[in-house]
Amino acid sequence: MKLKILICSTISLLVLCSMANPVECREIRKYSIEQFMKTVSIGGSSFSFDEKSVLFSSNQSGVFNAFVIPVEGGEPSQLTFSKDDSIFALSFLPHDKRILYQSDSGGNEKGHIYLRDECGNVRDLTPDEKAKSVFYGISYDEKSFYFGSNKRDPKHMDVYDMDIETFSPRMIFKNDGAYSLGAVSRDRRYLAFSKTITRDNSDVYLYDTKSQEFKRLTPHEGDINFSPETFSPDSKSLYYLTNEGREFTYLKRYDLESGHSETILQADWDIEFASFSYSGKYMVIGINNDARTEIRIYDTSTNQPAHLPEPPQGQISSVRISKSEKLMSFYVNGARSPNNLYIYDFGSQRYSRLTNTLNPEIDPEDLVEAQRVHYKSFDGLNIPAIVYKPHQADHSNKAPAMVWVHGGPGGQATIHYDPLFQYLVNHGYILIAVNNRGSSGYGKTFYRLDNHKHGQDDLADCVEAKKYLESTGYVDEKRVGIIGGSYGGYMVLAALTFRPEEFALGVDMFGVSNWLRTLKSFPSWWDPYKESLYREIGNPDTEEDYLRNISPLFHSSKIVRPLMVLQGKNDPRVIKAESDEIVEAARKRNVPVEYLVFDDEGHGFVKKENQIKSYRAILDFLGKYMSTSSGSVGKPEAWMQIPDPKSLQ
């Protein structure tokens, strides 16, 4: 009889498991940060002249270097071997295997453009130590490449044409205003620029190199954004994006001869970009579809979507069509899968994956998918967010949580693979990435709602994210912290000063503590956009009292929760003093503070060893202070004590 009961119980368990998520019926392995960081980050792509290989960047070696991989598949070959400063691959040259890449010094953002020949010899093509150079692309006739440099004036980015035969630069546009290059016509005659007036107001300008006429193409009244995207293959028209008369940006075309504009494509979300293949056979469109980028490829002969097989599952990005238009490279990414490089063959209509970047020690089933959610804020506004929930968390096993705030202001939390997110979730923390008011991607009205209200209504949206988590029933309301980088770091400091009792702790990564200083200390090449920043955030010359009111440093006496601060010593945007002073102020009040400074990083941490150190320190900090008693020292709940992977082998 006992045997019969045991068999029936086992069968019942198997039935229950077959009905439930299979992951919930087995132990979830806990992975170390070293295991997560063995996953390789890759990006960028350029076809070689013979279309037999693809150039890309990878941090396989610990810092980013240039790699190349055959389009037929195989192991990637490393081309550069930097151990200190990251190298980001830009492009193959058009007729051989020489490459261009970009690198700065210790994260100071003063990037230079380098040439590496087929023998491995390297030459700095933009050697001015004080200047910043930006690569714009290879010319259509393949005789030169375009780049920007502020060597003439640190405040302005002039446009240059670099001859590929002699590597002698020639200035083609002297930039004495807040103009950003958007496109160059294929016949080299026209340059299209955007000019930012405010974050919500911009214009398109056209420079005719033949007549040297410089004119505004988009005269308007009120706050409307315009930005150039690409010229038509015949150089007779300009495609640009605008939100004129609509909530979301859409694509228009301007006829250069007649001056007439017409709408080309509208969507229910922002159109992000548009580009043509080499002959103009295909047009690639990117649409920001609720935290995911949707790619559409059009056959320009029919103006209809190209007939392609169903692409691999995930978010597709960085689409590049080869010169012959026979091949297409792109990346596929998802919450549980990092960037992988794919090739599509238009002839055979087949996709092939060239890379496998996830550490093979990690089972993707142990990772978690992202869930898009919406919740109501204090004033009834609908707030989009993305939730990452540990497999074990439920109503009987309530988990601690972190509210993640993106950078910007004006950034957007999107669904993608993030090793820090998965690391924290794997160790038992729920994470909600908030798209607070002022985030991009949700219409111009939503985008403008934080203007001159920073640290106020946008912070309230983050507090409401905490309340949303509490309403789910699987979050421990006493153990909810807040974390973010750059502007998100500012929001962490704002939370701990303006809403000091709301969160159990805060993790600030290179966040602003004093807006008065930050707005006066931005890098020189941001000067043309200073007026825009002043209008959005505040003018330090005329609104000192307001900026003091929204700067956490001047309210540091209110901090009562544990604080962790991480900072790059060479950060040119949020300088180290921003973190030094908030740390000092909090320590004077005997608030628990942990402070990590990386001497070889700038605005963000790109070296693997620094990412490992910082991410491990964050988890240790949470484990130390995120206990059942908010803000006090304690250990995670028993359900979080997942066996070490070695014990399962």
Structural class: alpha+beta
Helix content: 10-25%
| Mean pLDDT over the full residue set | 92
Largest sheet: 8 strands, mixed
Number of helices: 11
CATH topology group of the domain at 367-514 and 551-645 = Rossmann fold
Architecture per CATH nomenclature, i.e. the level-2 architecture of the domain at 367-514 and 551-645: 3-Layer(aba) Sandwich
Q: How do the strands of the widest beta sheet line up side by side?
A: 29-30-32-31-33-34-35-36
Structure keywords:
11 helices, globular, four-stranded antiparallel β-sheet, alpha+beta, 649 residues, disordered C terminus, single chain, Rossmann fold
Could you explain the architecture of this structure?
The chain is of the alpha+beta class. It has a domain at 367-514 and 551-645: Rossmann fold. It is built from eleven helices and 36 strands. The strands form eight sheets. An eight-stranded mixed β-sheet has the order 29-30-32-31-33-34-35-36, sandwiched between helices. A four-stranded antiparallel β-sheet has the order 1-2-3-4, with no helix packed on it. It has a four-stranded antiparallel β-sheet with strand order 5-6-7-8, with no helix packed on it. The radius of gyration is 26 Å and the shape is globular. β23 and β24 (304-305) form a beta hairpin. The protein starts with a helix and ends in a 24-residue tail after the last helix.
